User: Fold this.
Amino acid sequence: MNTQMSPNTSPNPSPSHLADAPAEDRLAFAITEVARQFPDRTAIVAGAGGESSRTIDYAALAGAIAKLESSLDRVRPVGIIARANRTESLVVLAAACGRQHVPVAFLAEDSRDLIGELRDWVTVDDSLLLVANPAAQRREFEAVATHVVVATSGTSGPPKLVEHSWDSLLAAARLAEQWHGLGWILVYDATRWAGIQVWLQSLLTGGRLVVPASRDPDTVLKAIVDEQATVLPATPTLLRRLLTSADRSLLAKARLDRITLGGETADGLLLEQARTAFPAVKITQVYATTELGEVFRVTDGLAGFPVNWLGRSLAGGARLGMRRDGELLVQLSRDSAEVATGDLIEKRGDRYEFTGRRSDVIVVGGAKVLPRRVEELLRGVPGIADARVYGMPSAITGELVAAEVVLTEPLPEGSTPESIRAGALAACRSGLEPHGVPRILDIVKKITTNPAGKVPRRQA
Amino acid sequence: MSSLSDSTTAAIVAAIGQVLHDTGRAADAVEPQMLLATDLGLDSLDLAQTVVLLERSLGVDPFRAPPAGSARPAIRTVADLVSIYSQGLSARPAQRLP
Assistant:
């Protein structure tokens, strides 16, 4: 079992050296630097919080990267498809391909059928063995611009492949001193944008990447406690699950310094619950999409973003706008086109808060319902830990509002699942228009999520 | 009455009762001749919910694909519902209701 418990405070690799290296070289450079200075330092803990975990140190990663780089140099493939299940394999593939200027694609389980677009690319699995295909094209020396291919999660359309330059991929990485040697929990899929950002961040800063054995709340918390991880990047749905469904004593032992939320928008109630569980925590909410990358971050711990951000150039250079119907528009830089995000915002006091995606709107007998509003109401009902509201097709009214709820453990004093359900429906009747009241309300053990960890808005 | 329509009737009565209960109304006796709208106070949303509940309990939704070439039959009473669901359950093509 790994003995390197305390976060390392000396600056390595030096931020200035790292920033000097071309973007595609940085990951390999960072890992090699840490391996040189601290070969035994743990880079990755896989299967944390579970039956058996395994640790991979920086020296092992550096060795694997060097080995793969010589294969890449010899074979010169047109591109590499990373078909690996282990996080350490993905890291090695990214680092080696980057430094060898070979394009690399990360395809999640459900995007494997998009592979057809990457003809002549060579697939590499966890063995990290590169098998040359004599019939395949060899890359010419003046290579195609090196890039990374990532699959979108399919939340805003069918999954598709998106190309990113290494500069774009690394744009959001924080390399300053204060971010070095921290413990990061990876609960995102390591082949998708959000997951890639987490492992890049950890490895670029000599950190320890903790990969829990599963996404079960108790396992994740045990991983946090066992490995003393202090940074949790997660979706609001997952955070809510940790806060409401996990073993109370485990939750009390976990100490988080930072929570970074993304993928969905968080409501005020969740942010309060997080601060209650982790009093010292700093909460950052990141607004990003696979196509745009990171657009902005909110660090004041409040839901939504300040009203005066609309129409101004933000810290990252992006400019926000709003269509008349409330849809958020983003212009990444002065030369780029304005993109309609599909996200709806609404002014509430001195904030713009997210009310849901345009495609989430449920239409009942011609009247529109925003699922998030119904969810926020349901979560306020005593006995309900979390809720998912979605549209169910109806030949009579077009759609119906349906909901699934997870109950708190334990239930409030004197209540039963049936009494909570009746109370929830009554609360909806008094708080919503008639067409907005859920017509189907099921009690479930766990909120349904899609492979990216987000909540589907049409019948599962 | 065949046992098919007995159990179908029971399922429909139960579904309507559930709808009334869920919407905070008293679920008194539901009789076949009762008018859905006038006697039971059910609106289109209530009916839509009933249909979803019945799809769960009976496994069919006769409203989803109206028979080719015919209009959707009028559903006025509880008995009308029993009729359309009985037809949906047996494999006979749907017939116009009187």
Remarks:
- Residues 3-22 of chain B form the longest helix (20 residues).
- Residues 92-96 of chain B have pLDDT under 50 and may be disordered.
